[in-house]
Structures are given as C-alpha cells and as structure tokens.
Predict the structure.
Amino acid sequence: MNQKPRVIITHWIHPEVIDYLAPHCDLILNQTKETLSRKEVINRSKDAQGLMVFMPDHIDVQFLEACPKLKVISGALRGYDNFDVEACTKRNIWFTIVPDLLVAPTAELTIGLLIILARRMVEGDRLIRSGNFQGWKPQLYSTGLLNKTLGIIGMGKLGKSLAKRLVGFDMTLLYTDTIPLTTQQEKDWKISRISLEKLLIKSDYVVLMVPLVPDTYHLINETTLKLMKPQSFLINPCRGSVVDETAVATAIKSGHLAGYAADVFEMEDWAIANRPQTINETLLTDTKHTFFTPHIGSAINDVRCDIALEAAKNIVEVLSGNRPPGTINNITEKKA
C-alpha cells in the first residue's frame, strides 16, 4: 500500500479543512493557537511534500535546503514578502497564495481603524470605564470624517475594496497609483487620482494599501511625513515595514501627525534583515494618539476557514500532479 504524502500545517486550522485534507495526506498539525519555532517547523517538514504556511512563517534558502522533499508550499495568506518565492522556483516547489478572500475583511477593518481614530472612541471608552463620566459635557471633540479629505496610497484590490466602502461617507477621496482606475470607477467612487506628494499634502487621512516590496519599504518616513498635512492621520492595514515606526512616533510627539492606527507592524516582517524586534515603545505608550489591532484584518471565522480550505485545495492539486490555481510561480519540471 502506498504511503500518503506528508503535509505539515504550521498553525491552527478549522476542523472542516482537516476533514478535507485527511483522505489525501498524512497530516502533521499544530492545533494550538501558538506559533511554532522555526526549528520545530523545519524538524516537522524534513520529510514533508506539502506545507501550509501562515503570516508568522519565514521560508528562505536555508529552510528549503533542510526540507528537500517539498513539492508545494501553500500560503493561507495574500502577502508573501516573508517567503523566498524565487528560491522555491529554483527547487521546483510550487508556492501558492489566496489572493482574494482577505480583501473585503481587511477593507472592513480599515473602516473601523479610521472611525475609531477619527472619533477618539478609545478615549471615550476609557473615560466611561474610569467611573468619572456623569453625563454629557463638551469634551473629546474630534475632526470627524464629514467633508474631510482621505487619500488612498495603492489602488490594487485592497484599495478598490476600501474606495467602494467609502463612497457614502461624504468625503473628498483621492488616490495614487501607477495604474489609474477606469473613468467609470473614478466616477462611481467619486475619487480622483493625483501624485503621492499632492495626496500627502492635501489629505486629512492617509490610508496605506500597498504590498511590501523594495519600492514601498519605509514609503512613509521622515521625509514623506513632513509632506503630510499638519494634524492629519495615518492608517496602516497593509504591511508594517511600509512605515518607519520610529519616524511616525517622532511626528506624533512633535504634534505634526495627529494620530496613527495600524493592524500590522515592522517586527512581523521577517524578511527585513534590520527589522525592529518590538513595536516602537513611544507608539505603544501614547494611547491618546494611537490605536492598534493585532493583525486581525482577515480574522473573520468563516473567512479564515475559507482561506485555509483554498490553501488546502492548492496542496491537493499539487499532490495529484496538477498545477495549483493559486500559484504565483511557474514550475516547468515536476519533482519526482
């Protein structure tokens, strides 16, 4: 009897996904809610043909050399900057992602970050819980969103999803991207394309919606922050290292930047050699001007189940000798 191929799952997945995979492979699971050490993942993967990875994982040449039997690495994710896809291709290992399912939930969370920051809701919650609230009085006045200008940097799938959701907010919407929207999209979403510099100068709120690539690393830095409108707000739901967190902390401390909200952090971007090991302490302690969520852009139960299931289907396709639908690389020679 032929032995089933071994597949490693690095993080918790829904029972439905396990049920789907079980007939096709020998599963090695991590059904805790904790991240395994890199050493442990490598140890589990040495004889594996398939591997399902998540945001905290980091695949590089050294990892692949230790796991020579891999045929497919399937990401239950959209952004893949923590993974050396070129190294996978050289070793005839398929690398797959889930490109669409994370888009709407991330755009939804971005709206939440925007409103919470704009309306000083965390401060309000803290006031209520302090026991000092005795009824209305003129306090916690905010900038609000009505008639303000919001600029979106990056108009890929995430940017488009956000723009559609902002139509009813009665704001002036701007965007910058190398590829323009269609005339109809700009009309429907009441949004105008301008340069990055002009967007930073004009916007009361700046939302980052770009992938982490060499050109976007520290896109928001000391220089670009100085271009931003005084007392404007920055929202980052895309990738931590698109922002220089130290520069943001300095801009907030000086009073130039009114606030910063993020769901992602520099410390998460394993592929960046000189990344910070922790979130900037000044940002963490400034609870008046910052608001953070723990990378929960796609953390909707049904969505996460669907993401893992799509990643599982990519694995099964490869193990069946087929090209996986979610691949972002091209393997011309099949592994024996």
User: Anything to note?
Assistant: The chain has a mean pLDDT of 96. Residues 204 and 232 are 5 Å apart (CA to CA).
